[in-house]
Design a protein that fits this description.
Number of helices of chain B: 5
Structural class of chain A: mainly alpha
Distance between the termini of chain B: 62 Å
Largest interface: A-B, 51 and 43 residues
Helix content of chain B: 25-40%
Shape of chain A: globular
Oligomer: heterodimer
Distance between the termini of chain A: 61 Å
Structural class of chain B: alpha+beta
Order of helices and strands of chain B: HHEEEEEHHEEEEEEH
Radius of gyration of chain B: 23 Å
Helix content of chain A: 55-70%
Radius of gyration of chain A: 21 Å
Number of strands of chain B: 11
Largest sheet of chain B: 11 strands, antiparallel
Order of helices and strands of chain A: HHHHHHHHHHHHHHHHHH
Chain lengths: ~375, ~230
């Protein structure tokens, strides 16, 4: 015999489970692509070095150092203030839950990617037709540089925060948009560019928002920049140098200046002779510009294109093309453009096969070159 | 007007919250750097920023002065490479650029047994500064209160490293003493196998006259690129 309150609880649980299934069922394809792409990356990574965990290498080491030991500026040397704090904060939280740092990084990244893909698909569906949203999401999951989404890098988390902020804004949850935007601002410097789409969304809703919501929308637009500004304040507190980020960047050969792009192009032949892997980033840079031009033709809101252009082009002003291929992972218009190009089944198939092949190839390069 | 004021207050509140949370969340979750690492990083910054270190060494039963410069020097094949040049008061010169040490001594001077030990005792930025910086990043340095060069100091104990001394692999034991307030390097105590020594060191700005002195003392080794 089941008593009355217990019956109510059971019904509530069944209801929640049914709602969960209802939510999952139309997204099974997405979960499948996420699982397949991650399986490829993890399997290849383990095949390269069965005894070692290469998904935590390169910048992953620095993020772990920040999470474990905090920040320390060593002038003239590569040091950790070059890495923004929100991802290490998440790693530290995962560690406090009992996960080792080596496992926490890739685990957080992989789980965040699933959430990011769901949000990206929903965002794209709000802007384009569902078929394009589906293709764009698949292309993002299997993108050649997408192995970074499984490494101890903040790109997956950034994807969640950037798409989450935009989606929340579209659904008029401006407080949530502000929280996501602020978190993006202290996850990676590119986070500040989410303010452009947020500004456009706020402008489009201006007549239908009450005074409080309007203030929240304006706050959400400004939140990424405010959060970004908090990082020098934090560094000033902890390493007694508000410019520690810039100083640490210099040790990696990054120094922003007005003629940085000219210098990057001028020194390209010499840099390529020294580091042939840079070809990957140069090709990606050109390809991204072409895809942004294609995206312009299909007509996503202009602020998305401007934000994408900023993410791709501004790093060149630091005097080099390093890691631009990776930065493209945070530019949604690239995947919208690819999805538009893949509207014909043959092209779609070609993009999928090429992407998966290059994803395997990209994962194989992890021990040799930083992403 | 009231609606506009409400909007502005809300927007500013969100900005303030983002600014505050961006500072407070890392400050609350991430640990501050360990004191020893901070001290080692600051001491490394002194050595790497100033580029020249004057020293007074006691090693192998001898007392000798030293002047060490970090800069660009011509290697054996004539190519300029970053490194350190130590010029001792007895005329001995030790150049380390590109990993290998080259020691040249005047004819009547008894050759020193370990150029590595001399470079470390002289506080050469390329040897001690880089090592301090690396150990600070790795979190492997420890600090203790001490007294050195006639003042309160902190002793930075660096993890041991292996070096070849006349074909034999031996471990060193390097301690750098820094001033207690500004972490300026003051002294070095070092041992390498059965050799040991101590020194007082002082970082000096690399002015034109000092560089000319170096140029005069070591024309074949010194390059011009800074």
């Amino acid at each position: 015999v089941i008593s009355q309150p217990e019956t109510g609880r059971t019904e509530a649980r069944l209801g929640a489970a049914a709602r969960g299934l209802e939510w999952i069922q139309p997204r099974l394809w997405l979960i499948g692509w996420w699982a397949a792409s991650r399986l490829i990356v993890v399997a290849v990574a383990l095949a390269i070095r069965p005894s070692g965990w290469i998904l935590g290498s390169w910048d992953g080491r620095w993020y772990r150092t920040v999470a474990r030991d905090g920040y320390l500026l060593v002038p003239g040397r590569q040091s950790d203030p070059a890495f923004f704090p929100f991802f290490p904060v998440v790693l530290r939280a995962a560690h406090d839950l009992g996960l080792g740092y080596a496992v926490a990084g890739p685990l957080v990244s992989n789980v965040a990617l699933l959430v990011g893909l769901v949000l990206f698909e929903a965002l794209t569906r709000n802007l384009f037709r569902p078929q394009l949203a589906r293709r764009a999401t698949i292309y993002l999951a299997v993108f050649p540089l997408g192995y970074v989404f499984s490494m101890t890098y903040p790109e997956s988390l950034m994807l969640v925060l950037m798409t989450g902020a935009a989606l929340a804004a579209m659904r008029r949850s401006w407080w949530l948009a502000a929280a996501c935007g602020a978190a993006a601002g202290i996850t990676r410097p590119e986070g500040v560019f989410i303010a452009l789409p947020l500004g456009a969304i706020a402008w489009s809703q201006r007549r239908s928002l009450g005074p409080i919501e309007r203030g929240a929308a304006a706050g959400a637009v400004l939140a990424p920049a405010a959060a970004l500004a908090s990082y020098p304040l934090y560094l000033s507190h902890v390493v007694h140098d508000p410019l520690a980020w810039q100083r640490a960047q210099r040790a990696w050969g990054r120094h922003f200046h007005a003629l940085g792009a000219v210098s990057a192009i001028e020194h390209l032949p010499a840099t390529l002779a020294h580091n042939a892997w840079l070809v990957r980033d140069v090709i990606a840079f050109v390809l991204y510009l072409v895809l942004l031009a294609v995206a312009w033709r299909i007509g996503p809101p202009l602020p998305w294109l401007l934000a994408g252009l900023a993410i791709v082009v501004i790093p060149v002003f630091s005097g080099g093309f390093d890691s631009i291929a990776r930065f493209g992972l945070l530019v949604p218009p690239l995947f919208w453009a690819l999805a538009w190009l893949g509207r014909r089944p043959r092209v779609d198939l070609a993009i999928r096969i090429a992407s998966i092949t290059l994803l395997v190839g990209g994962t194989l390069t992890i021990p040799h070159v930083y992403p | 007007v009231r609606g506009l004021a409400a909007s502005i207050v809300v927007a500013l509140s969100i900005c303030g919250a983002a600014l505050g949370a961006g500072w407070a969340i890392p400050a609350g979750v991430l640990p501050p750097p360990a004191r020893a690492e901070r001290v080692a990083a600051d001491a490394a910054a002194w050595l790497l920023r100033y580029r020249v270190v004057e020293s007074s060494l006691r090693v192998e039963g001898r007392r000798v002065s030293g002047l060490c410069l970090r800069g660009w020097f011509a290697s054996r094949d004539g190519v300029l490479a970053r490194g350190v040049l130590l010029v001792l008061g007895d005329g001995t010169r030790i150049l380390n650029n590109g990993g290998a040490e080259r020691m040249t001594s005047p004819p009547r001077v008894r050759p020193w047994r370990s150029p590595t030990l001399l470079l470390e005792l002289a506080g050469c930025p390329g040897a001690v500064g880089k090592r301090l910086a690396g150990d600070a990043v790795d979190g492997t340095v420890t600090a203790a209160r001490a007294f050195a060069a006639g003042q309160p100091a902190l002793a930075l104990h660096l993890p041991t490293q292996r070096h070849h001394v006349r074909g034999i692999l031996v471990r060193d034991r390097l301690t750098v003493y820094v001033s207690a307030r500004r972490y300026r390097p003051l002294a070095v105590v070092d041992s390498l196998g059965d050799l040991s020594g101590s020194s007082r060191i002082r970082v000096v700005r690399a002015g034109a006259s000092l560089l000319e002195r170096f140029q005069a003392q070591s024309p074949p080794m010194l390059g011009t690129r800074q």
